[in-house]
Design goal:
By secondary structure, the protein is of the alpha/beta class. A hairpin with a 6-residue loop joins strand 1 and strand 2. The protein has 19 helices and 26 strands. The strands form 7 sheets. A 6-stranded mixed sheet has the order 2-1-6-5-4-3, sandwiched between helices. A 5-stranded parallel sheet has the order 9-8-7-13-26, with helices on both faces. It has a 5-stranded parallel sheet with strand order 15-24-16-17-20. It starts with a helix and ends in a 17-residue tail after the last helix. The relative contact order is 0.13. It folds into 3 domains: 3-121, Nuclear Transport Factor 2, Chain: A; 153-295 and 506-580, 3-Layer(bba) Sandwich (FAD/NAD(P)-binding domain), CATH 3.50.50.60; 302-503, FAD/NAD(P)-binding domain, CATH 3.50.50. Bound molecules: flavin-adenine dinucleotide. Flavin-adenine dinucleotide binds at residues 169-175, 192-195, 200-202, 205, 209, 211-213, 258-259, 292-297, 339, 509, 513, 559, 561-562. The site of flavin-adenine dinucleotide has 33 residues, from helix 5, helix 6 and helix 17.
Length: 597
């Protein structure tokens, strides 16, 4: 089918769909979808990030939301395309409160997947482009105050004379991206960061670390990297970028200031957030508290019998800086995911004798292959040349409902498996326990389901294959004065033991900062409920509690990789702005959550 007939078909679907919605006929609208359909909504219809799966769920959603949302103005945006029997294309629409954009996939004359996303709130559009502020104040004015004086006053008074509407805990990419968007929307915001600089979370990581995702995937909101930025950014360079981002985006940040405690006053509908500032206790009283403390920000410190008697050095991988001190030493790294591999390779480069202890199987994917068969389709120079800007790529990415992601990702994993068959054979030959995800869907789904269980190979696998990094298997029985002992009795002598045992979820941080009861009330943060390893059900169809209303009023979570921090901060910022302005924000499809965390 050529593009013009694909466009005609999409136009006709949109027009009929729009008529069905206009007449408030939820059944008629839902009947325009295939039986195996998905409608993913990012706020526009549900004030939630939610996916309706199947016609019945779409009918129920539309019945509940149509009278308030009153969608209108549906038009297709650009030409549609057709491939393998699927017609794809963009459309625009409006609701009572907002402008929106979406992406559709049709199978025949019915809709298979529909994405609807809120772009801007009517009347509260960002001051960009032709709406930008003037800056200078031409003319003469007694007592004129400069931009610097106003900015300094803002920094001096926020949190003291003026309460922020939002407090964000953490200024990694997640906190900064959200703070930048809230600033544009005029939402008074204060960020708290226990480190001395906004980018320190990256700066403090092991010396050899470079981003595993390529530059096209990693831009922060509003301020893309220069076009000579390296494909894979070294961690100190991204740390510098984040420090500068905070400055030029004029974000209010209290650095070297930990959020020590927080409690919610249901009656006043506000938080009491406790910090120490300049040696004095300060209580902040925001309406909203956002945890942007990192999906990989709470180290899982293991407890093995005998750890206290170990005479060498031992620490969690998050504390590893550089392997230089360990030249000629015997090092054991517990774990076989990203950090474990990177650190083993770095220790080996520094002349240490290195053993990796693999406790369970790991998915390994070559960095080049992941890019070639996966990321580059939407995020690359070639994609840009095809007109896929970062914004478009983000929305196309978002248009694949989580329920369909295995279907989209299994072929990618299979292609990598075929392309790298020799490599995988060699890894298996030396006994490395490989997996490809419970259903063969590979890396991205492991990340979304459990945030762990994989290595993006940038060289350590070759060291394992040729024996430079020794490989042992099994659980840890105990630690003795000079060794780590495996369950089967094998003793691994060690001067250094690194526990690359991963990270807990942000709910661990909530338990620490607010209370274990609050963490339990909110439930799991991250994971989809896919009933696969380390991601128990129930199925949510969306990442749990991320970027959307939680079961605690005024408590939110922001974070994820750079792409997610960029894209989903848009929806979190719109939710907070709407609440500041007192707009109705009825949430449809509130998660039942999971009782445990
Ligand atoms: C080794 C490693 C490699 C990674 N590589 C990549 C990659 O290549 N690409 C990618 O996209 N992602 C990567 N990630 C995952 C993720 O993107 C990073 O963890 C990233 O730093 C997350 O950003 P964030 O803003 O969500 O949280 P973080 O960067 O973890 O920032 C959280 C901040 O919260 C602060 N904080 C925590 N508690 C408090 C408190 N009580 N009070 C005040 N401040 C507090 C911390 O000091 C920290 O600065 C990697 C993660 C790790 C651990």
């Amino acid at each position: 089918m050529n593009s013009s007939s694909a466009t005609t078909q999409l136009k006709s679907w949109i027009s009929a769909f729009s008529n069905a919605l206009d007449s408030g006929d939820a059944d008629k609208a839902a009947a325009m979808f295939t039986e195996d359909c998905y409608w993913r909504d990012l706020l526009a219809f549900t004030w939630n990030l939610s996916t309706a799966e199947g016609r019945a769920a779409i009918t129920a959603m539309l019945r509940a939301v149509l009278p308030l949302v009153r969608p209108s103005g549906f038009v297709i945006d650009g030409e549609a395309t057709e491939s393998n029997g699927i017609i794809e294309g963009w459309y625009r629409f409006e609701t009572e409160q907002a402008t929106g954009k979406g992406f559709i996939r049709l199978k025949g004359s019915q809709c298979w997947t529909l994405l609807s996303s809120m772009e801007e709130l009517k009347g509260f559009e960002e001051k960009k482009g032709s709406r930008r502020v003037f800056g200078a104040e031409h003319g003469v004015q007694k007592g004129r105050r400069t931009w610097l004086e106003r900015r300094e006053e803002e920094e001096r008074t926020i949190g003291h004379e003026r309460q922020p509407y939002v407090v964000i805990v953490g200024t990694g990419q997640g906190g900064l991206a959200l703070a930048a968007r809230l600033r544009r929307l005029d939402v008074p915001t204060l960020c708290l960061e226990s480190n001395a600089n906004p980018g320190d979370a990256w700066r403090k990581r092991y010396k050899s670390l470079c981003l595993h995702d390529p530059v096209w995937y990693d831009h922060m909101p509003y301020l893309p990297f220069p076009d000579d930025w390296p494909v894979y950014t070294p961690k100190d360079k991204i740390a510098d970028w984040l420090d500068h981002y905070a400055k030029v985006m004029e974000l209010n940040i209290w650095t070297s200031t930990a959020c020590e405690g927080a409690s919610y006053d249901e009656e006043r509908q506000e938080w009491a957030v406790k910090v120490t500032r300049g040696g004095k206790p300060v209580t902040l009283r925001p309406k909203h508290l956002v945890f942007a403390t990192g999906v990989s920000g709470f180290p899982n410190e293991p407890k093995f019998p005998g750890m206290d008697r170990f005479k060498g050095e031992q620490y969690h991988s998050s504390k590893h800086g550089s392997g230089e001190r360990f030249a000629g030493k015997t090092c054991v790294v517990v774990g076989s995911n990203n950090s474990a591999h990177d650190i083993c390779a770095e220790l080996w480069e520094n002349g240490a004798d290195v053993t990796m202890v693999q406790r369970s199987s790991t998915h390994v994917a070559g960095s080049d292959s992941l890019f070639k068969f996966g990321t580059s389709k939407l995020y690359s120079e070639a994609a840009l040349e095809r007109g896929i800007t970062t914004d478009k790529a983000d929305l196309i990415n978002a248009s694949v409902p989580y329920g369909l992601m295995p279907q989209f990702n299994i072929p990618v994993t299979e292609a990598i498996r075929e392309h790298d068959a020799e490599f995988y054979k060699k890894l298996e030959k030396v006994g490395f326990q490989l997996d490809y995800g419970d259903d063969g869907s590979g890396l991205f789904l492991k990340y979304m389901r459990r945030g762990s269980g994989y290595y993006i190979n940038v060289g350590a696998s070759e060291l394992i294959i040729n024996g430079d990094i020794k490989l042992r298997h099994g659980q840890i029985r105990e630690i003795t004065e000079h060794a780590l002992v495996l369950e089967d009795g094998m003793e691994l002598p060690a001067d250094l033991i690194i526990y690359a045992t991963g990270y807990g979820s942000m709910s661990d941080r909530v338990a620490q900062v607010v209370s274990p009861a609050m963490a339990a009330k909110v439930g799991k943060v991250w994971g989809l409920g896919s009933n696969t390893t380390k991601d128990p059900g129930p199925w949510e169809g969306e990442p749990r509690n991320m970027w959307k209303p939680t079961r605690q009023n005024g408590l939110w979570f922001q974070g994820g990789n750079l792409h997610q921090a960029r894209h989903y901060s848009q929806y979190l910022s719109l939710q907070l702005k709407a609440r500041l302005e007192g707009l109705p924000t009825p949430v449809y499809g509130m998660s039942e959550g999971s009782a445990d965390r």
